[in-house]
Design goal:
It is a single chain. The chain is mainly alpha-helical and about 300 residues long. It has a two-stranded antiparallel ribbon with strand order 1-2. The radius of gyration is 18 Å and the shape is globular. The two termini are about 25 Å apart. About 45% of the residues are buried.
Length: about 300
């Protein structure tokens, strides 16, 4: 590891952008409108936090970067699909994402629905068609892990819990349960898929990485809740204060701003402790963690 964090981040972001651009259907490919919407929803925006975690975990495990790129792209496609669907009127009903109109505003609701469906299936197409491990069993386990992270026992289930919680008062354990699924599951998948592109880690080491990912997944959501309260729409690139407006339970509404900040710092500390056994090999993961917790947008 020689590049500074900003240089490494820019390289990883450019790498994933180039790969996604090459694998998304061309804008003149029939059905044109759907493919335009897919590219609109994925390219040219976002911090690519999940791919950064995949690349950092892959670097720790000394995995082949081309394999990690495929895994990172699959996770990012799932994330992009979830944003398209979350913004729909039947969900969070938002009009702004990554500083531009949401997919259903730029196109229409039916196209947005199909865009999310298509991005999800493209993610699994990538995982299935490329060799990501020398052991087919491990690659199948990676596909299963992403499916579970995205489904009713992961992100989709967490979103259902979130929708059902509007207007209710949740306890802190209930809120954590929701976000372990809604936000944390895909972040954990990003870390684990990146690491499993190498077969060199033991079951114990994979368990340590999974614990790290669980901590940083929750920290990500705590910071998101803080930013929704404190940042502006222009800074966020999405509608600020939406959770409070919709009467959704958040870490800020339950704990307050000061205690929520303390929780984010504690989760970062716990994540760092989970990486102790990896030494300098985990430097990139620590740097991405710091970026997540200290981000301003």
């Amino acid at each position: 590891m020689t590049a500074d964090f900003q240089t490494w981040t820019s390289h990883c972001q450019a790498n994933i952008e180039t790969f996604l651009e090459s694998r998304l259907p061309a804008i003149d490919c029939v059905p044109v409108r759907l493919h335009q919407a897919m590219r609109y929803s994925v390219l040219g925006g976002g911090k690519r936090v999940r791919p950064l975690l995949s690349f950092a975990a892959g670097e720790l495990a000394q995995a082949d970067v081309e394999r990690v790129t495929v895994a990172a792209a699959a996770v990012e496609l799932i994330h992009a699909y979830s944003l398209v669907h979350d913004d729909l009127p039947c969900m969070d009903d938002d009009v702004l994402r990554r500083g531009k109109p949401t997919c259903h505003i730029e196109f229409d609701e039916a196209t947005a629905l199909l865009t999310g469906d298509s991005l999800q299936t493209l993610a699994f197409e990538l995982l299935a068609e490329k060799c990501l491990s020398d052991e087919p069993r491990i690659q199948l386990e990676m596909i299963v892990q992403l499916a579970q992270a995205a489904g009713s026992r992961g992100m989709a289930g967490g979103q259902a819990y979130d929708l059902d919680s509007v207007g209710k008062t949740l306890s802190l354990p209930e809120l954590e349960f929701m976000h372990i699924h809604k936000t944390g599951a895909l972040i954990r998948a990003a870390v684990m898929l990146g690491a499993r592109c190498s077969g060199d880690l033991s079951a114990e080491q994979l368990g340590q990485l999974d614990h790290f990912a669980k901590c940083i997944g929750l920290a990500f959501q705590v910071v998101d809740d803080l930013l929704d309260t404190e940042a502006t729409t222009a800074t966020l690139g999405k509608t600020a204060g939406k959770d409070a407006e919709n009467n959704k339970p958040t870490y800020v509404s339950i704990l307050g701003i000061s205690a929520a900040r303390e929780l984010a710092q504690k989760l970062q500390h716990d994540a760092d402790q989970a990486l102790q056994g990896f030494g300098d090999a985990a430097t990139r993961l620590r740097q991405v963690t710091d970026f997540i917790v200290k981000r301003k947008f």
